[in-house]
Amino acid sequence: MEKGLVSVITPTYNCAKFIGETIESVQAQTYQQWEMIIVDDCSTDNTKEIVDKYIKEDSRIKYFCLENNSGAAVARTKAMELANGEYMAFLDSDDIWPEEKLKKQLAFMKKHDVAFSCTAYEQIDENGKVLNKIIKTVPKADYNRVLLDCPVGNSTVMYNVEKMGKFEVPNIRKRNDDALWLQMLKKEKYIYGMRSVLMKYRIRQNSISSNKFKVIKYHWILYRDIEHLSIARSVFHIAYWCVIKLLKIK
């Protein structure tokens, strides 16, 4: 484990259109002590060729391809296994960081002695156009708060590996990031949120999460099979989530 090093965890699948911009947002960071670990879930486009161009010029970028298409959870777990940093930060291969992201979040965590943190973020469309929608986080959230209505944006999260260790991402296709935060909150009581907007989240029409109501089955898997909640409590959480999404649509 290298002191001060931030390992950027980036699973990818068929993101050739976006991954160059994502990599460049890491390279532009004012905090330069980082490594970027990209794990490819057997992309069928030219993702590898694009990443290779960056690797030739920047040895901090590392690429690994899974043997079989296995989903983002497996790719993310593999990237975490390969990480060498004192900290890990998560960045999906179509999202973007502003240049002060790592510097500001590390300063926040050190100042407040925080091991697990996230930030606010804004939405952009597939072409990078700002949608004028900012997603706020909360000052702090525990296991039950995240279980109820997760206020955590995946590509905003950073945590101290030295204090919390490494984790295996629960292997479900959707909501595996939420499942990971829940695992981590069994070890660390709170995830602390920053008000600063330190990520741009890309809304893609063909993504697995673009139709919210197609992912209800993954909620059920998370609540029943991974978190082992009762049937009644699982039904409550799914109903609560559906109501919240309907209110947001309106």
UniProtKB/TrEMBL annotation:
Record keywords: Glycosyltransferase, Transferase
Enzyme class: transferase
SUPFAM superfamilies (alphabetical): Nucleotide-diphospho-sugar transferases
EC number: 2.4.-.-
Claim: RNA-binding is one of the keywords in the record: no
Molecular function per GO: hexosyltransferase activity
Entry keyword Mitochondrion: no
InterPro entries in the cross-refs: Glyco_trans_2-like, Nucleotide-diphossugar_trans
Segments forming domain Glycosyltransferase 2-like: 7-135
Protein name per the record: Glycosyltransferase, group 2 family protein
